[in-house]
């Protein structure tokens, strides 16, 4: 009799586990692509007695469409030559924009 009661309780426990509703979608949400900060590049150099030249450039994406095919970015830059036989040059400023369209995503 005890075996029958234990077997019945075990069957009820298994039936209750199988009857528990499972979620429809068991997949994980996709990981969003990483968001990189402002892209900066720079450099400089010169030779003895010739002064020193340097420049810095940057690019930043400001908008991307929902499907990822259209993208707008801003560009900027600064450059100057310091010292040397001709002295300091005027600073050179650059500003621009980019538009990218991806044919295949």
From TrEMBL:
**Composition skew (Gly residues), residue ranges:** 41-51
- What is the residue range of the signal peptide feature? 1-19
Q: Name one GO biological process term.
A: defense response to Gram-negative bacterium
Its keywords, alphabetically, are: Signal
- Indicate whether Signal appears among the record's keywords: yes
Highest taxon of the lineage: Eukaryota
- The answer to keyword Ligase applying to this record is no
Region of interest (Disordered), ranges? 30-51
**Record protein name field:** GM21923
